[in-house]
Amino acid sequence: MKRAAVIRASSLGDVVLSTMVVDYLRDRDYSVTFFTGSEYIPLLSSDPRLDGAVNVHGKEVESYFKQFHLVLDLHSTRLSRRIRKQLLIEKEGKLHIWKSARWQRWLHVLTRGKYFRPQHVLRRYHEEAYEKGYRPRIILSRENKSTRDKAYAVIAPGAKWPSKQYAPEHFASIAKMLVEKGLHVVIVFGKGDEKLEPHFRYTGNVDIISSQSLPEIAGILQKAMICICNDSGLAHLSEAVGTPVMVIYTSTAPSLGFTPHLPPSRYVWSGMDCSPCSPYGRKRCLLFLRCRKRIPPKMMFPVIEKMLEETTSQG
């Protein structure tokens, strides 16, 4: 069997989205090894489709030099450029480099979303795989699958950049509406999101989950009916384990090419004239992050109810 290496070091959402090529490669008789950052290895190490998940920053990378017939560089950074040719078998090895579109995303931002719209990121990772219907998948080990019995919705209020975070008090309002509808709610906090917890401290049918590993969070997402979240890595992780998402775009925009792909999933956008202000989000804003509060929870809730109906009818 031929061997393929996939390189994507970070971040969470991009690593998850890069798994789109795994099934595509295996269907073409390649065994697959995934090179990524150490924090994402626990998420991939139990995947039976992979020969292994390797720390791209570690010395063990050297033991894989000259072993692969195909290398897919889905990051194209200084690090990935340094190792990708070293991983290839000499002469017969082939190299695939993704279309990053960094300059295009920045031009799209500078024209406030009017011009230079990038293709969807999955198409840029591998167009043929995308056209043939391959999508990201994360396969969890049995011990990381949630044992919760009752139906629940997940709310993930965090994001790496403050400007990408929908107002936490609005998330709390959505949680209350779901509880009033009779649905259990699980609030999931990622690394660094603990400061948002006070907004969700009220009596009700709500669990607050923090300090969990990525595989454990993925297990919670997998059994949820829906996940309501920001434009963040957890949105992509949720879809990769089969759970539809409601993604809320504040300072970023759907036109940047990272929209959800599962049929029941939805997204809403602040639609402010200054959005998108960055391809990735910002720490500060001269307009006091007004985009975080632009979308009223009551306006979104009918869409959430529709998603729950669709999920129930499919399940």
Task: Write up what this structure looks like.
This protein is α/β, with parallel strands linked by helices. It has 2 domains: 2-131, Rossmann fold (3-Layer(aba) Sandwich); 150-314, Rossmann fold (3-Layer(aba) Sandwich). 30% of the residues lie in helices and 17% in strands. The chain has 11 helices and 11 strands. It has helices at 12-18, 20-26, 41-44, 78-87, 102-110, 121-125, 127-131, 168-180, 214-222, 233-240, 297-314, and strands spanning 2-7, 30-36, 50-55, 70-73, 94-97, 152-156, 184-188, 206-209, 227-230, 245-249, 266-269. It has a 6-stranded parallel sheet with strand order 8-7-6-9-10-11, with helices on both faces. The chain has a 5-stranded parallel sheet with strand order 3-2-1-4-5, with helices on both faces. Helix 8 (168-180) links the parallel strand 6 and strand 7. The radius of gyration is 20 Å and the shape is globular.
Describe the secondary-structure layout.
Elements: E1 2-7, H1 12-18, H2 20-26, E2 30-36, H3 41-44, E3 50-55, E4 70-73, H4 78-87, E5 94-97, H5 102-110, H6 121-125, H7 127-131, E6 152-156, H8 168-180, E7 184-188, E8 206-209, H9 214-222, E9 227-230, H10 233-240, E10 245-249, E11 266-269, H11 297-314
Parallel strand pairs: 1-2, 1-4, 2-3, 4-5, 6-7, 6-9, 7-8, 9-10, 10-11
